[in-house]
Structures are given as structure tokens and as C-alpha cells.
Specification:
This protein has about 350 residues and is of the alpha+beta class. The protein has two domains: about 220 residues, Rossmann fold; about 100 residues, OB fold (Dihydrolipoamide Acetyltransferase, E2P). Helices cover about 20% and strands about 40% of the residues. Helix 3 crosses helix 4 and helix 4 packs parallel to helix 5. The longest helix is centred in the middle third of the chain and has 17 residues. Bound molecules: adenosine-5'-triphosphate (ATP). The site of adenosine-5'-triphosphate (ATP) has 12 residues, from helix 1. Keywords: ATP-binding, Cell membrane, Ion transport, Iron, Iron transport, Membrane, Nucleotide-binding, Transport. This is Fe(3+) ions import ATP-binding protein FbpC 2.
Length: about 350
Amino acid sequence: MHTANLAINCRGVSKTFNATTVLDQVDFQLPQGSLGALLGPSGCGKTTLLRLIAGFETLDQGQIWLGEREIANSKSQVPPEQRQIGMVFQEYALFPHLTVGQNIGYGLGRQANKQQRIDELLELVGLEGLAQRMPHELSGGQQQRVALARALAPKPQLLLLDEPFSNLDAGLRDQVRTATKQILRQVGATALFVTHDQEEALSLADQVTVMLGGKVLQSASPHELYLRPTSQAVAQFVGEANFLPGVARENRVECALGQLLLTKPMHGPVTLMIRPEALNLVPDPRGRGQILGQRFYGHDQLLDLQIGDLMIAARTGPRLDLAPKMQVSVSVQGPVVAFQSI
Ligand code: ATP
């Protein structure tokens, strides 16, 4: 395997706490310069993986490389402070008795040009003029930016962020996410963040890694993950999905929606995954579908359809021509993903 452009490379990493396996033979890679998300439900092991990379936990099996340097295996560990990794914690963990400027400069020790570096970072995160403030005099969004600036100050090889946006209220969160991404891009940082919010992972990251029960299920670009999930579990966890039975033959499949094209040739009984927005609805008194329910959100709407004894969800833009009780014809846009039924 070519590892030259990898910022992180975890091979066969396992971790057990009190006889419970929290990470089970995890392989995980992140290319240099990219922004990665570890996504999964509570308890799937994502924070443990982040803490192993940071060096706050020891691993039972496997190896971790940071660039070309092996930083951990089951026998030896590079101490966290020698890993050149920056951390941003969920609670920001700013030093309450230090000013903004002192917080940002904390990791710089006595290095020459320290003040210049602090000023650069204040400008980078848009907090010029606030160097003398204390953390409690800042808004949540500003505190988050100080935490980011403090982590970036020593120019770490890698930045790890643990649920970095979860303490912000919904209105501010989107703005802070976008600003954080811009800042990371501007300095060319490689960063990995943990989240259980799929929208956050999809909208921010270059690479999203879905974890479940201590295993990595899939690591891919947001588009790939959403449009080409490799398992039913990923399809179910990321976005909304309809699952329906079908019978495949080569590139085609027969199902309640008629004959559809598959993304790859398959044979025999399969489970199809169709995203609600991939369904086209046309009012048609002789159509196979009936609209049973409608949830209108303005920018879009979700419609519950009955087709034979199957219930599926469709998402469309706002339309005046669709309403409950109507019959509709239903077609599917583009080829569909199928999983072999067991
Ligand atoms: P969350 O989003 O809730 O933080 P997570 O996916 O990040 O979840 P982890 O924090 O990695 O999950 O925890 C995975 C499992 O390991 C959990 O069941 C947790 O209780 C357990 N665990 C984590 N740290 C320890 C520890 N130090 N001692 C014992 N068990 C632990």
C-alpha cells in the first residue's frame, strides 16, 4: 500500500475497555491536507479512535502512523506532546485565567516571534483587537475560534477536533462550521473531527468515515458515501433511504417500481436502496402509487406513498399538483444501488 501521502494510517487497531471491545481491527487512513470526519452513533468508538491517535489512550493491537512516523503500537507509544498534533475539545478547554492572546500563545513556549505568531492567528480567526479579553468575556463562537487558533499556533502536523460544534446553538453552528473550514483550508491543515451529525460530516468533510460497533464500515467522499453506500447499514445511517425487495439480472432489477437499472451487475434476490429525492412523481389517475401523507417544509416536501403493499417516502420541491389521496405514477432517476439479500 502506498502510504507516502497519508497523514494518518491506522492498521488493525483494537482497543478493549474492561473486556468490552470498543475498537475491533480498525483500518483508517486520511490523506495529507484533507478534512476527515469520523461519523457514527454514540458509543461506536469514534472518540476512542481520536484519543488513540492523539495518544491519550494506548492501543491493544495494531499500529498508527502519522505521516512516515510510527507513533503507536501495542508495545510503544510516542507521548502525546511529541506527536505534533493539535486538539480542539468539545468544551474548548480554554484557560480561564489567561487572556485570549495568552491562550493562543500557550503552546508556543518561549519561541522568538511569539507575539507575531499570536497576531497572525488572531487575524486568521478574525479576532483582531480581542487579544486582551478573558475567555468568559467571549461568545461561544468566539471561544471556539480561540480554541482553534491555540491548536493551530504551533503549526501541528495534524489537528484533531472532538465534536467541535456541538456546544453552539443551531443558528451560529452553520456559520462557525463554514468559517472553520475556510481557516483550515487557508493554512492547508490536515484535520480530523468527530461528529454524530451526518449533515455536519457531509457538508464539511472531504472524507467521511462511518463507524458502527467499533468497526469502520466505509470511508469515502460525502458524495460517494451518499450515492454509493457499500452496505445497508451505511445507507440507513447516512441520509434517508427506502429499501425495497427486487430480483436482479445483470444490470437490471424487477421491483414494485417496475424495471430499474442497477449501478453494477447482480443476480438473484436483492434489497434496493432508493433515496426519497430520486423518485419522480407525476399525477396520474392510473398510476401505481397513492399519496397517503404529506409533510410540507417550504423548500421541499416529504410524501408517503403506498405502492401495492409497500410504503415508501418521496421528496420533491414545493409543488401545487400533489396532495394526499392522489394517484401518481412513480419513476426513479438514475441507476439504483442494490445489496445482495441474504
Ligand atoms: P459518543 O459520541 O457518545 O462520545 P463515541 O462513538 O465517541 O460515542 P467512545 O467515546 O469512543 O464512543 O466510546 C465507545 C465505548 O467505549 C463506550 O461504550 C464507552 O462507554 C466506552 N469507553 C470509552 N472510554 C472508556 C474508558 N476510559 N473506560 C471504560 N470504557 C470506556
